[in-house]
Design goal:
α3 crosses α4, α3 packs parallel to α10 and α6 packs across α7. The chain has an 8-stranded mixed β-sheet, with helices on both faces. The chain has 632 residues and is an alpha/beta fold. It has 3 domains: 139 residues, 3-Layer(aba) Sandwich (Rossmann fold); 260 residues, ANL, N-terminal domain (Rossmann fold); 124 residues, ANL, C-terminal domain (GMP Synthetase, Chain A, domain 3, 2-Layer Sandwich), CATH 3.30.300. The structure holds 5'-O-[(S)-butoxy(hydroxy)phosphoryl]adenosine.
Length: 632
């Protein structure tokens, strides 16, 4: 078996050579990469696709189990190597090192627990857990037996959790009594109790004891520690087809309910590993830390799967950057001699607001590579990160990708290809991006903003939206036939470096979280005193974007506590992350004659614009713009 190392770019020349060959003959190229993994049966065809259907299949008829590649395979080389390094919320609680051997054991035990609960290949299992090692165990145990995991970020509300459980008709729920988040304790189990009142499909719930609080255990609810007691640690890995579902992960859309993006086994395995090794240039003794939560795609691909597939040591952090104070991240870097640090621009901006002594009191000399993900990084934050954290000697990889893409699409390769502040730079090997104008024509000039699109399939692209293939087609493939349309704008410089300029739809990235404005409006409109609302994003120093809601009330006199009530309504329906910074009560909303809210105008008002609204004469109610301005 050839080693994947042979295909990792170690110089710019390597990158150019590999990139060219991946374009010249993509199937041959990906065939070689896929051959470096452990398959139970080799595939018979590398790729079959049709952008119009749309349908994408990779490594057809190949059989594998991703956990054999994450775990079993490494037991032959270095079973004692640390797979997961767990750093708890409480800095005085001991961190935990879990070797590949130990992780393999725990995964097999829990896979048997799932089997005992009658969970079978193809069944969906919802995971709503804090950032503790058992979360990774839960994810991999599902994959071991071929159950489809649907991880829901443990900051989502009961309503959001119930909607996701119901959409995928999950058969089991894995959760915890509670979670530690800085100085707060979050009572996860009571959120779960509330959610389950609305869910019919769940047959069993397994509760991990994290905080030791008094919780009510209902019918078919059992404790994790009781379940694993005496269970065998031998569990054969289920044979999966390359195109079988590995997981569902929900992401918000610009309209309607969240989209359950479906990822499949073979392509996702190949692409997450290949990008992890190329982008981060991970070497066997490195200690890699991605600060995301496993509830997001970043955690799936670059805390769990990518690093474990590559045999890396991956840090899992339970806490928050501000607890016990804003030096926590840097304490952890020093404590564990972190070599790779991957975080979000919003975290960098928040940390940069605090005295740099909080950084400088720590020895950060172990750091070799820095990364960012989730939103565009502004130059100031980039420079702060480079100077204070990287001491001007660490490359910074600005990685652009999405829940839908499964893995990194644009990024420099650390120390191998050049980075450039505010630019995600170059396409990954195998990725063919283009910029389109509004008519769908490819743009070739540089410095001209266009719509980013991808014109050739890649192994880890989401295969469908769970239960709604038509929506998958409409959202990603209908606007520009023959391309995948991610919903971002971009431009390139004269050297072909890409710079992401932001969303071109009604999705707003707040603190690195992808939020559709429509679901937030729906939540606000649930309030009995609300007639209609519009939510828009505006630039914010720390969060990148913040939300401002314009709300029309039924009875303005009842508006004393509306601000609080609307925020509560949103927290209850979606979760606290979706709360707007500003809620403005307005007499009306600017609308076109067809009744569509002109969010463009509201976006301008929210960004502080006082005039220059363009031609508003076509509005149904142009006078409302002045009224809103006068009251803001
Ligand atoms: C959207 C996807 C990828 C994991 C985290 C977010 C924005 C993501 C960057 C970046 C500029 C970025 C895009 C994208 N985004 N990374 N490096 N530079 N924008 O995943 O929740 O699916 O959101 O995040 O707008 O479309 P997601």
């Amino acid at each position: 078996m050839k080693k994947i190392d042979n295909y990792i770019a170690r110089s710019e020349t390597d990158y150019n050579r590999l990139y060219s060959s991946s374009l010249a003959n993509p199937e041959f190229f990906w065939n070689q990469i896929a051959e470096t993994f452990l398959w139970k049966k080799k595939w018979t065809k590398t790729l079959e696709y049709d952008f119009n259907k749309p349908e994408f299949k990779w490594f057809l008829n190949g059989k594998l189990n991703i956990t054999e590649n994450c775990l079993d395979r490494h037991l032959l080389n270095d079973p004692e190597k640390t797979a997961i390094l767990f750093e708890p919320n409480d800095p005085y609680q001991e961190s935990e090192k879990i070797s590949y051997k130990e992780l393999h054991k725990r995964v097999c035990v829990f896979a048997n627990v799932l089997k005992n609960k009658n969970i079978k290949k193809g069944d969906r299992v919802c995971i709503y857990m804090p950032m503790v090692p058992e979360l990774t165990v839960a994810v991999l145990a599902c994959a071991r037996i071929g159950a489809v995991h649907s991880v829901v970020f443990a900051g989502f509300s009961s309503t959001a959790l119930a909607a996701r459980i119901n959409d995928a008709e999950c058969k089991a729920l894995l959760t915890a009594d509670g979670s530690f988040r800085g100085s707060k304790i979050i009572d996860l189990k009571s959120i779960v109790d509330q959610a389950l009142l609305e869910c019919q499909s769940i047959e069993s719930t397994i509760v991990f004891k994290r905080i030791g609080s008094d919780v009510t255990m209902n019918n078919n609810e059992t404790w994790w520690h009781d379940e694993i007691n005496g269970v065998s640690d031998y569990c054969e890995a289920e044979e999966m087809d390359s195109e079988d579902m590995l997981f569902i992960l929900y992401t918000s859309g610009s309209t309607g309910k969240p989209k359950g993006m479906v990822h499949s086994c073979g392509g996702y395995m190949v692409y997450s590993t290949y990008t992890f090794l190329n982008v981060f240039q991970y070497h066997p003794s490195d200690i890699y830390w991605c600060t995301a939560d496993i509830g997001w795609i970043t955690g799936h691909s670059y805390i769990v799967y990518g690093p474990l597939l590559a045999g890396a040591t991956s840090v899992m952090f339970e806490g928050v950057p501000s607890y016990p104070d804003y030096s926590r991240f840097w304490n952890i870097v020093e404590k564990h001699k972190i070599t790779h640090f991957y975080t979000a621009p919003t975290a960098i901006r928040a940390l940069a607001k605090h005295p740099v002594s909080l950084v400088d009191d720590n020895n950060l000399s172990s750091l070799k590579v820095l990364g960012t993900v989730g939103e565009p990084i502004n130059e100031e934050a980039w420079n702060w990160y480079d100077k204070n954290i990287g001491k001007s000697k660490c490359p910074i990889v600005d990685t652009w990708w999405q829940t839908e893409t499964g893995g990194i699409m644009l990024s420099s390769l650390a120390g191998v290809t050049d980075d450039k502040p505010t630019y995600a730079t170059k396409p990954m090997i195998g990725i063919q991006p283009v910029l389109l104008d509004n008519n769908g024509k490819e743009i070739s000039e540089f410095d001209k903003e266009g719509i980013l699109a991808i014109k050739y399939p890649w192994p880890s692209m989401a295969r469908t939206i769970y239960g709604n293939h038509q929506r998958y087609k409409n959202v990603y493939f209908a606007a520009y036939p023959g391309y995948y349309f991610p919903g971002d704008g971009a431009l390139t410089d004269s050297k072909g470096n890409y710079r992401i300029t932001g969303r071109v739809d009604d999705v707003v990235i707040v603190s690195g979280h992808n939020l559709g404005t429509a679901p937030i409006e729906d939540a606000i409109n649930l309030h009995e005193n609300v007639v209609e609302s519009a939510v828009v994003g505006y630039p914010h120093d720390i969060k990148g974007n913040a939300l401002r809601a314009f709300v029309i009330l039924l009875d303005e006199k009842a508006s004393i506590n509306m601000d609080k009530e609307i925020k509560e309504q949103i927290s209850k329906t979606i979760g606290p992350i979706a709360k707007p910074d500003i809620i403005q009560i307005v007499p009306g909303l600017p609308k076109t004659r067809s009744g569509k809210i002109m969010r463009r105008i509201l976006r301008k008002i929210a960004s502080g614009e006082k005039e220059n609204f363009g031609d508003i004469s076509t509005l149904l109610n142009p006078e409302v713009v002045k009224q809103i301005l006068n009251e803001s």
